[in-house]
Amino acid sequence: MKLRSLLRLVVLPCVAGVAPSALRAWDYAGHRLVNQAALASLPADYPSFVREPANAERIAFLAGEPDSWRNNTDPTLANGVQMDHYLDLEELEEAGLDPLQVSDLRYQFVLQFAAGRAAHLDHFPAIDPAKNKDHSREWPGFAPWAIVEYYGKLKSGFSYLKTLEELPELSKPEEIENIKMNIVYTMGVMGHFVGDGAQPLHATIHHHGWVGANPNGYSTWYGIHAWIDGGLIAKAGITPAQVTPRITSAQPISLATRPDGRDPMFAAMMDYFIATQKLVAPLYALEKAGKLGNDKITALPDGTTHNEPRPLTEEGKAFIETQLARGGQMLGAIWLTAWRAAPPDTYLRSQLLKRQPAAAPAK
Ligand SMILES: [Zn+2]
User: Fold this and answer.
1) Other CB atoms closer than 10 Å to residue 47's CB: what's the count?
2) pTM score, two decimals?
């Protein structure tokens, strides 16, 4: 039913006609474009330090940071962070869970999924322990939860900054600079996962070629993921100039209380991934129609393959540019919401106020 997530971490043995490829999300270039698009979407009244050239460059650069963690193959790290890059939504259904009802709390969801998986074990293939050292294969991925957690960290950063700036006579310039750097870091890193959420192959079990029943004859090519992540973007030469015109000024995400009691930011992120999953079949249809610019690979009787180059079409290029822009639009909306929703940090304020006697001039 599925190629498991560990396969995202390894380098494929070379198959004739298919170059080995590190398995990533959008490659660095794509993730960078998402973060840059998000920066371009921010309204004029957003804290201006994020647009200072060095900070804007750092936010763009940090889009690649979570993928650099993948170069460390320690199972302990992989188990903690690698499953934050995706959500194979079909697995929730296989476990008898409704994505619109699962818990917004990561570890409550873990309990729900574990119970659902155990009750429907026949829906899941056996796991080869040798290929599962990080124990990722038991899980569908946690991207929406990870993004909401980063949103909370960003909101916390803005709470800290707002409080320091409200009490300039009690705060220290280095404290303000440090919290700004923390905000820049969080914005940049979280952008990676929001960008992943715009890549259709990060919301499905069909992440490295179609698996299972395949009535439409979609490609089972393992390399489709790497092609969407980077090959197509490189072939098309997509730059910010092609992506940013597709975005509009960021609008905050509604934080109104929901009837189902779930966290509204989490609900928005789950909706985002569900919408992305709806693009999986259209993406495979584009590939089948030869519109994505990847080689047509034909197996030959002698065991080798024949690669037939195919041109990248405007339709295929537009599909990817739209997704990069969609990721940037969502990321800008999350950043904007975090800044606006951040309340004062009352604990920090109480601590700053204790400084007053020492800071007051001697009488
Ligand atoms: Zn990723």
Assistant:
1) 16
2) 0.90
